[in-house]
Amino acid sequence: MTTKISYAIAFLLGLGMVFLGARFFSSPEVATAAFGIRFNSNGDYSFHHIKGIRDIFSGILLCALVLMKERRALGVMLVVATIIPVSDMITVLEKSYTSVPQAIPHIVATIICSVVGILLLTAKPQIKTPSK
């Protein structure tokens, strides 16, 4: 049961990442503000494209691992990928114009990635018995 819930959370996280990444392409200023930083692009959205494609790739990979039921690979990815929201949180908190409220999405993502990843890695593999 825990594995199924972890898969569901990981899949929703993947869909969320695809949405967030797509927003960096479709509404870069909105996405940057939601990320928690100010960024004066002067019409150059290179940063937004880099951030957007990173999120889209991560989201698609999460969804693919869930759909292929690659429990261990998904767990490893989530635990290792925790470095991304931690780094994002530090970046947001280092700004003089931000505080904890702007870092909350990154804190939540860190908790979700680490907890779900650990649950998937510590889950016992289900042994399927042949039906008669």
TrEMBL record:
Keywords: Membrane, Transmembrane, Transmembrane helix. The chain crosses the membrane at residues 49-67, 74-92, 104-123. It comes from the Bacteria. Pfam families: DUF4267. InterPro entries: DUF4267. This is DUF4267 domain-containing protein. It comes from Mucilaginibacter paludis DSM 18603.
